[in-house]
Amino acid sequence: MSHFQLALLLGMTVALGPLALDAYLPAFPDIADGFGIPHADVGLTLSAYVATLGLAQLVGGPLSDRYGRKLILFIGLTVFAIAAVMIAQATNLSELVSWRIVQGIGGAFCAVSVPAIVRDQVGGQEAARLFGLIGLIMFIAPAAAPSLGALMLVLGDWHWIFVVLAGYALFLAVVLQCALFPRLKPRPSAVTPVKTLVTNYLLVLRHRTTMRFVGIQVLCFSTMMLFITHASFIYQEWFGLSNSAFSILFAANIGLMAILNLINRPLLRRFSSVVLLRVQVILQFVALIGLVSVVAVGGPPWAVVAFIIAAIGCQGGIVPNNMANALEFFPHLGGTAAAMLGASQFTLAGVVSALSSTFGGDALLPIVLSMLACSAGAVLLALGAPAAVAREKAGGTAA
Q1: Helix, coil or strand: residue 270
Q2: What is the mean predicted confidence (pLDDT) over 42-69?
Q3: Rounded distance, CA 287 to CA 280, Å?
Q4: Would you state the torsion angle of the CA atoms of residues 41, 288, 143, 156, taken in this order, to the nearest 10 degrees?
Q5: Residue 353 counted as domain residue
Q6: Which residues does 373 contact at the CB level (< 8 Å), separation at least 6?
Q7: pLDDT value at residue 152
Q8: Distance (Å, rounded) from C-alpha 355 to C-alpha 353?
Q9: Is the model's pTM score more than 0.85?
């Protein structure tokens, strides 16, 4: 299978997560009005999904090492689809949050399988390029998701958004069964009893370089999650924009991600992925300094939007470079290492997102200050990252 074909299929799979995160963002006001709750409380459904998406990967990753990527991925798609249907029938916030948690479990089993499949196939700079191509393909989903949600609101109501998500999960199951797994090289299963499972996680936790990249992923993703959680508030309530305008501006973030992702691919032939990661983390920090400054002095909306797009767009280069480096040291424990990365990323970002909704979701300055604080931590970790990760091969051989 060519890299493009593999990236296309895995990109479609990874897109399930962004669709579940972003498609219902334009519906936040409608959900709040329908349930008779404050707008900020709807953000808890997002935080609950993201936190579960992280924690459940700690289980899904080792299971995929033990029982194979296909079984765990298909279980995830099934659970995700069932939960989406139940969410569409929710009548109050408690039901919505509960089923979003279940949906997060299904999403986690899908999310952790994809980087593990990549690590099964390639490593090093080649993995960074493949992750970049997957990212480029999956950017279509978050770019289109708010527009899809807005379309559903025109045709019906917010419940249909989750019906469409259930249908997409079932469609993926058919496509992957027919086009992906029959063409992958078979991977021998690994026996992972509890003692070995704990040992394997300790191997990852004790690997300082890997955990540095995990930290960068957590902080950069938290920066993006803070924006996603409050995007509807910022654009629709703070600036009073329409659903269509919100969708366009949200898509602009993804557009810049895609551009930087495209630029990153040829640069990988000349520069280390760690160097490129460091530069793009710093650029994101600079953009957020500009954002905080504009918000603090009450600058015009166009300036706020420009700095948001610049900051969030940097994720297009940060994510593929960082993921490749974080998984580089554990070729035989791809699922476990990917689970640690995903669990840390989604769980801690979900906590940050929930705290921001609870304590600072009604004003713009606390939101952008929180984004800047997360980015500052990522810069500190990136500046200390080794310049030549490929030379550090260590650990990663446990089974």
Answers
A1: coil
A2: 84
A3: 11
A4: 20
A5: yes
A6: none
A7: 82
A8: 6
A9: no
